[in-house]
């Protein structure tokens, strides 16, 4: 008590000339050098960073080459970004016909608009839901064509276009299927319950890459001669079914968190099963599980890169074809760094958004 | 949608009609015999208070009436309809039988107003405007109108329970079930909820209340039903029940409950 008043007193007597400086030193002392051991760690990290950052920046930016036509133009000591800058259209749009690229841009815009739409609180939930339901079909139509737009063969799909397409459409379909599976697993009807459990457990115990191989090789066996399903559609279905099984478990966890009183109140008011679920239980479950579901979306987004093993050229496929092209041989570092940056930006944004939502929800839960 | 027919409940009810009729009801939880040969007849407009020690089966009985619990033996007729496997019939009965729970069970993701309008729009097929109008009248009646835009989590227990009553009334029920509506409340909030229930009773609502509020029982009940170990031990008008209880088990229960100072005012 006396110490405190004394301190207050002395603080008042001699106000530090630069209060922020004072605060900064205090913060540094408290956060970085609280104990000898931690001081050692902090110092080591600092030294490493001081040595590494200038080196990295120099290589990545200052001595790097950004403009030029071929590998011959890369004369500096730094990175040679030409394989990326020269082929950026290939990376983003794949082999999509040049005149139709506006369609891809609109599809990207629609996909990106999901985040702000989820942000808006004033907009009626039903509109948001409607938008999310229409979106995958809209994207499919934009990219694939038909009904007024010229058709584009899916062999032309490649690059970021494929990655975003698989990720967004996969998510939007996986969620409702996941919900149905979760409800099925809790169903009182033994047949439905058994099927759901079997499906979820089976899918969860097989690596996704196995399922992708099965999709590319085996599914054809089940269809009559001559009838083929687009390989693109096949991997999309696998990704959806795979993610749905995991989401089902997340949602089941959310369902268990809802007290039985909620079900009873709804039943007592005469709500049917589907109305109880749709209007009362699921809105609460989804609100509570948005953060883990977004994490799963991030997982799905990264898993889309596996489609390259069955011959679908996503952004990784383009990267691989770039590094093996004779004119860009030996520039793997740059190409894969670019790839890492691309995934980092998108996944970091999403996980940041998930954290933001989590905080929001903590605030609103009184 | 068979909506129009469900709104006729606002018509004056036949005073002598049987609202709830329970005949030789038996219910087991696994091997545990929770309700033993229960028979009870409640006429329209009658107010029944059910009391008894913990675990005696009061909640089970009242929850059988709207089939939140299923019984194994005996028959149950509610508002002229005998309960069976028919889900449509069960839903119709549930819409005509309101229920209030010990822990309110309001929908936390919906505002107070939405809690009251959603059952109407979803189950009675009313328009949003009609639903809001009726909900506001009822919220007025339980003196919660100024809180219409708040969320349940922002309100006290007493306020939540009054909203739960309003929500149940929004379905225009002909019978109301209460399962210890005040026992999760702090003492100072009990009165405000009881007041609403007394008001409802004076309006002629058919009510079955599980409660330990003996003052309330004295004031509004037409009959008090005492249960113990899954049986109805005694049923009598309140005056007779409190002043000259017949069974030793009733006497014991009454002395216990009075000793513990539960409100008798
Ligand atoms: N779901 C259940 N499964 C098994 N036993 C149950 C279940 N619900 C209730 N019981 C048992 O049935 C008996 C009656 O329970 P009930 O809840 O109807 O009692 P109650 O009279 O309402 O008691 P309280 O005053 O504590 O609410 C109790 O012995 C209880 O343990
Ligand atoms: Mg009880």
TrEMBL record, chain A:
Domain ABC transmembrane type-1, residue spans: 160-354
Localization per record: Cell inner membrane; Cell membrane
Taxonomic source organism: Vreelandella arcis
UniProt GO molecular function: transmembrane transporter activity
Name of the protein: General L-amino acid transport system permease protein
GO annotation, cellular component aspect: ATP-binding cassette (ABC) transporter complex
Superkingdom of the organism of origin: Bacteria
Membrane-protein topology: Multi-pass membrane protein
Transmembrane segments: 40-62, 101-120, 127-143, 158-183, 195-219, 231-248, 304-323, 335-354
UniProtKB/TrEMBL annotation, chain B:
Protein location: Cell inner membrane
Claim: Plastid is one of the keywords in the record: no
UniProt cross-references to InterPro entries, sorted A to Z: AAA+_ATPase (IPR003593), ABC_ATPase_HisP-typ (IPR030679), ABC_transporter-like_ATP-bd (IPR003439), ABC_transporter-like_CS (IPR017871), MetN_ABC_transporter-like (IPR050086), P-loop_NTPase (IPR027417)
Cellular component GO terms held in the UniProt record: plasma membrane
Membrane topology, from the record: Peripheral membrane protein
PANTHER family per record: AMINO ACID IMPORT ATP-BINDING PROTEIN, PHOSPHONATES IMPORT ATP-BINDING PROTEIN PHNC
Protein name as annotated: General L-amino acid transport system ATP-binding protein
